[in-house]
Amino acid sequence: MNLIIISAAVIGIIGIIIAAALNFAGDKFYVEPNEKANQIRELLPGNNCGGCGYAGCDALADAIAAGKAQPNGCPMCTNVEQISSICGVTAQAKEKKVAFVACIGDCDRASKAGVYSGFQDCAAAKAVQQNGGKACKYGCMGFGSCVKTCPFGAMRIHNGIAVVQEQLCTGCGQCVKACPNHLISLIPAGTTVRINCSSPEKGMKVKQVCTTGCLGCGICEKNCPHQAIAMDGSLPVIDYSLCTGCGTCAGKCPVKVIR
After folding, report:
1. Helix residue spans in 53-203 (DSSP H)
2. CA nearest 174: which of 54, 24, 49, 73?
3. Could you read off the pLDDT of 189-244 as tens digits, one per residue?
């Protein structure tokens, strides 16, 4: 009985000591809350997607409050004016962008160079077997690394290639980082003309591995009435600040890789 009483007393004393230490530490290291950061945090979407370049919404709010980030730092925030007012500056919301996968070489169009049966991950497949069994080493492998990393469910795999559901995409850019073939980019939302190929090869080399790959012929550049397309090596690049979406390039493309 004495042993039980002594043990209980020791535990009680230890508890009192720990409580006192925690109370002292709380007073000693107490940090006044940053009201500006709290107000900003309430106006951010709270998805913690990392699209702003910070660890999450809390970190971005602290950075904006400290003047280290702009009020429009969040690519999906719709409350930029309110945040700007809190900071005493003027800023406009960034242009909304969405992810775009520059490849339509699905299972019906792309040739096979082998069969991959390893870990279902694009980076792993590329390291082990060039491009996960597809003959085009620049195309989408379809193992869904982008799908797994998208925090908004805006990516899916359809017939062997990644597809963006733009109504769900916020432009956070996580899928861009996840793609080992660098097929995904962020483009202005609402654009109607897309070049759906990323292969730097041209002519017969492309036709041998994909029936819908860009041939690098340059017809689109020559026929664009607004000079919105320029060839970068064997691939056309669209200047969306000049593109009107007239569709001339899509109509002239012999392999219909421009849509």
Report:
1. 57-65, 80-87, 122-128, 145-149, 174-178
2. 49
3. 989 999 999 999 988 999 999 999 999 999 999 999 999 999 999 999 999 999 99
Cα separation, 175 vs 144, in Å, equals 10
Please give the Cα distance from 236 to 217 (Å, whole number): 9
Phi, psi of 158 (to 5 degrees): -130, 120
Q: Residue 78 and residue 115: Cα distance in Å, rounded?
A: 46
Q: Distance (Å, rounded) from C-alpha 58 to C-alpha 75? A: 15
Give the bridge partners for 186, in sequence order: 99
CB-based contacts of 201, cutoff 8 Å, min separation 6: 138, 213, 216, 234
For 66-111, write each residue's pLDDT tens digit.
989 999 989 888 889 899 999 888 888 778 899 999 999 999 999 9
Residue 3's pLDDT is what?
72
Q: Which residue has the tokens 């009483």?
A: 5
Q: Report the distance separating Cα 152 and Cα 73, nearest Å.
A: 19
Cβ contact 223:208 at 8 Å: no
